[in-house]
Amino acid sequence: RGESSESRGALIVFEGLDRSGKTSQCSRLLSYLEGLGHSAELWRFPDRTTTVGQMVSAYLSNDLQLDDHTIHLLFSANRWEKRSMMEAKLRAGTTLLVDRYSYSGVAFSSAKGLDIGWCKAPEAGLLAPDLVLYLDIPPEKAVERGGYGGERYEKLEFQKKVAQCYKVLEDSSWKVIVCFILSFLAIELLTGFLLPTLDLCHLVAHHQESC
Ligand code: 2DT
């Protein structure tokens, strides 16, 4: 390991359908990394605590009706308002485990029929993830897990479209993890991808643009 002043944290993003296990795996990975002595934090988008995030939350719970483009930009704005804090954390050496990010933004909005190029545009300039862990679960299996609440997107037909839209977005930063393997091998699998990424972060000086 290099000098601590030269090392930054890694930006690790979890993506997947609702009920794919992102939140659980994020927490497990956090404990694991902390056990290894890494500084790490759990983040999630949407971050419902901000003013923008409260609008997003009201939209998701059907208390607020918004045009599809408008809500798309609010989701993106919610990432932009956290960008400088994320960068500061990463520079200070803290690894961020982020539950949903730009890929959710593009997949969910393009699943509604919005142009994919238009959906990607406001994401340009956000911090690029070092690693995206995509938890791959068939939509029918996700429904079986139960726990779909009453939120706007938690319906099987829509989740099927989202799954198709996610597939188009896969790039070299992605590791696709098949969900039924995950329950047995989660930490081993994840850390097989993760630890090399953490090492790499000590060498990478700058973040690239995302999307
Ligand atoms: P959670 O259930 O994980 O809180 O997500 N979504 C999320 C979007 O449509 N665009 C985005 O940019 C993000 C981050 C996915 C709430 C829902 O919001 C969707 C599910």
From TrEMBL:
Top-level enzyme category: transferase
Domain Thymidylate kinase-like intervals: 14-177
Pathway: Pyrimidine metabolism; dTTP biosynthesis
Keyword annotations from UniProtKB, A to Z: ATP-binding, Kinase, Nucleotide biosynthesis, Nucleotide-binding, Transferase
Listed EC numbers: 2.7.4.9
Keyword check for Coiled coil: no
UniProt-recorded Gene Ontology molecular function terms: ATP binding; dTMP kinase activity; nucleoside diphosphate kinase activity
Nucleotide-binding keyword on record: yes
Gene Ontology biological process: dTDP biosynthetic process; dTTP biosynthetic process; dUDP biosynthetic process
A Gene Ontology cellular-component term: cytosol
Family stated for the protein in its record: Belongs to the thymidylate kinase family.
Protein's recorded name: Thymidylate kinase
Organism: Rubroshorea leprosula
Residues of the full protein shown: 49 to 259 of 336
